[in-house]
Amino acid sequence: MTLLKYFGTDGIRGIAGKSPMTPNFMIKLGQIITEVFRSNKKKIIIGRDTRISGSMLQYSLEFGILSRGFSTLLVNCIPTPAIAYLVRFFNASGGIVISGSHNIFYDNGVKIFSEDGVKLSNKKELFIEKKLKNFTYNCSYQENFGFSQIIKDASEKYINFCKNIFSNNINLSKFTIIIDCANGSTYKIAPKIFQDLGGKVIIISNYPNGININKNSGSTNINQLKKLVILKKADIGLAFDGDGDRVIMVDHLGNKINGDQIIYVIAKYYLKNNQLYGGVVGTLMTNMNIVLALKKLGIPFYASKIGDRYIYQTLKKKKWLLGAEQSGHIILLDKHSTGDGIIASLQVLLIMIRNNKSLHCLSNQVKLLPQVLLNVIFDRNKDFEKDTKFQYVINQSKKFLGLNSRLFIRKSGTESYVRIMVEGENYNRIKKVARSIADVIKSI
């Protein structure tokens, strides 16, 4: 497989103001994207999240697109899944989201959707990478420049899309719902959807200032949400990430419900109601007890590579509907073409209504195998796998862990981290192993 310089597991990501997240790069990228989206439509949707660098990068990207004769439809601050929907709604050539997703504010990124509302294929990413290596800037003739148009009701269109999927079946009036918007792109949209459907909604982390996105909030930090769910005696807590394509939940007892547990609840419901076609696609990090529980129900499971677009590609290949990452990407292909935190949340609430059961009751049927997840800061361009110290600690760790355990170590595709996952029956043992591996990687 060709190693890509710019694209990771979820688009292009980096520190805003440094390569590749610079205005010059974005102009080049904008021009090249028009070659990927060759069509007679010649219009591209552009949205962004709330981080302070978003406007600068958006304008630069737009300059490149307009200079090549494509027009832009600007939807401003909006969740990533909304772009996937709006591309189809407006019959556009494609869509672009400027977002650093779950990362802290100083990171930013670019996610690109094709005209059918799905993320770019490996082939198209490779095409862009090759073009970037030997790029020569050039413009169309002035009379061929594109137009820029602001779509003022884009949020309303997406809100209606989400509500209409469930509106005939769901009434949230019996629920108290606490929503953590991570000071990100769901901060207006998510509260309105759940309120419009009747829910008593309490909102936190919904005052973005450009630099507080994901800060001690959202799907990567649910401490505040857990406390508030218990304090307010809420039925459920929903923590979205900065761009709204992930959700982590909290049950009424304050327990974290991750993507593995969420997809188990949904898959079991689909099976019971004859809505399940095929099985479930997870990743190499999916908790083994979830895999075993699905198989016990007779639901096939397949582990794809890390990254929601790989899950999507596997689902399409197998003609299945349900996929998820532990981190909260939930893909329901009968509902949407991409992972959507809001839609996944509505689906779980519908299941709670139909079964007259709490989220805790639905999810605690499977006891997760203990896992320890650690992130170690590491240069993504450097190698550690072949280092003798690393190989030695891995071999010793496998012997120490024994049966019914797993090690999974990988470079992040979105941040400068090595991600370490150790799974096993004894928490203290796996924690010790994870820390010893982290120490060796730090020394390298």
Automatic annotation (TrEMBL):
Activated by phosphorylation. Belongs to the phosphohexose mutase family. GO terms for biological process: carbohydrate metabolic process; peptidoglycan biosynthetic process; UDP-N-acetylglucosamine biosynthetic process. One of its GO terms (cellular component) is cytosol. Pfam families: PGM_PMM_I (PF02878), PGM_PMM_II (PF02879), PGM_PMM_III (PF02880), PGM_PMM_IV (PF00408). Residues 373-439 form the Alpha-D-phosphohexomutase C-terminal domain. Its cofactor is Mg(2+). The gene is glmM. Its EC number is 5.4.2.10. The modification Phosphoserine is found at residue 101. The active site is at residue 101. Catalyzes the conversion of glucosamine-6-phosphate to glucosamine-1-phosphate. The keyword Phosphoprotein applies. Keywords: Isomerase, Magnesium, Metal-binding, Phosphoprotein. GO terms for molecular function: magnesium ion binding; phosphoglucosamine mutase activity; phosphomannomutase activity. It catalyses: alpha-D-glucosamine 1-phosphate = D-glucosamine 6-phosphate. Residues 5-134, 157-254, 258-363 form the Alpha-D-phosphohexomutase alpha/beta/alpha domain. CDD domains: GlmM (cd05802). PANTHER family: PHOSPHOGLUCOMUTASE (ALPHA-D-GLUCOSE-1,6-BISPHOSPHATE-DEPENDENT), PHOSPHOHEXOSE MUTASE. This is Phosphoglucosamine mutase. Mg(2+) binds at residues 101, 241, 243, 245. InterPro entries: A-D-PHexomutase_a/b/a-I, A-D-PHexomutase_a/b/a-I/II/III, A-D-PHexomutase_a/b/a-II, A-D-PHexomutase_a/b/a-III, A-D-PHexomutase_C, A-D-PHexomutase_C_sf, Alpha-D-phosphohexomutase_SF, GlmM_bact. Binds 1 Mg(2+) ion per subunit. Signal peptide: none annotated.
